[in-house]
Amino acid sequence: MPALALRVNGRGVELEASHAASLLQVLRNDLGLNGPKYGCGLGQCGACTVWVDGVAARACVIPAAGVAGREITTLEGLGTRDCWHPVRQAFEDAQAAQCGYCLNGMVMQAAALLAREPQPSEARIRSELSGNLCRCGTHVEILDAVQRAAVLIAKGARS
C-alpha cells in the first residue's frame, strides 16, 4: 500500500492506506478518531462531517488520497475539555444531544457556518443544518445551541 501524508487536527500524519479508502475509514480505523461517524455511506446524512481546509465536507465519500496535504479538522480538533470551541460548549450548555450520533455533523456544520457568518438568522441556521439528519428530535435544542454559540463567539470566546 502506498504511503499517504495528511494534516489532521494541526499535525502531520503519514500512514499506509489503500487508494480506495475513504477519508472516514482512514480517520476512524487508522487514526482512531471517533468524532466522525459512519451513517449512510453516501454523503447524505452528515454524521461523517469534517472540515477540509476549513470547509465542511462529508468524509465518507472523499477518497483519502484526494486530500493529501490538505488540512483536515475533525470534532477532536475543535478544542479540548479544558478549552472547548464555542460551538461544542454551546451544544453542551443547551443539552443538544440525545443519542449523540448526529452530534459530530451538527457541530462541525454549525462551526463552519459561524466561521463564515458569525450572526446567522434562525432561517439560515435551519438551512445550513438541513442536510444533517437527526432522528432523536433535539432540533429545538440544536438550534438553540447554534444561537448560543454565535453569542459566545461575539463575546470573544475562542473559536
Summarize the structure in words:
This protein is α+β, with helices and mostly antiparallel strands. It has 2 domains: 3-76, Ubiquitin-like (UB roll), CATH 3.10.20.30; 79-154, Orthogonal Bundle (DNA polymerase, domain 1). Helices cover 34% and strands 17% of the residues. It contains 5 helices and 7 strands, in the order ββαβββββαααα. The chain has helices at 23-30, 86-93, 103-116, 122-129, 139-154, and strands at residues 3-8, 11-16, 49-52, 55-58, 71-73, 79-80, 83-84. It has a 5-stranded mixed beta sheet, covered by helices on one side. A two-stranded antiparallel ribbon has the order 6-7. Strand 3 and strand 4 form a beta hairpin. Helix 2 crosses helix 5 and helix 3 packs parallel to helix 5. The longest helix is centred in the C-terminal third of the chain and has 16 residues, at 139-154. It starts with a strand and ends in a 5-residue tail after the last helix.
Strand order, largest beta sheet:
2-1-5-3-4
What is the CATH superfamily of the largest domain? [2Fe-2S]-binding domain
Percentage of β-strand residues: 15-25%
Count up the domains: 2
CATH class assignment of the largest domain: Mainly Alpha
Mean pLDDT: 92
Tally of helical segments: 5
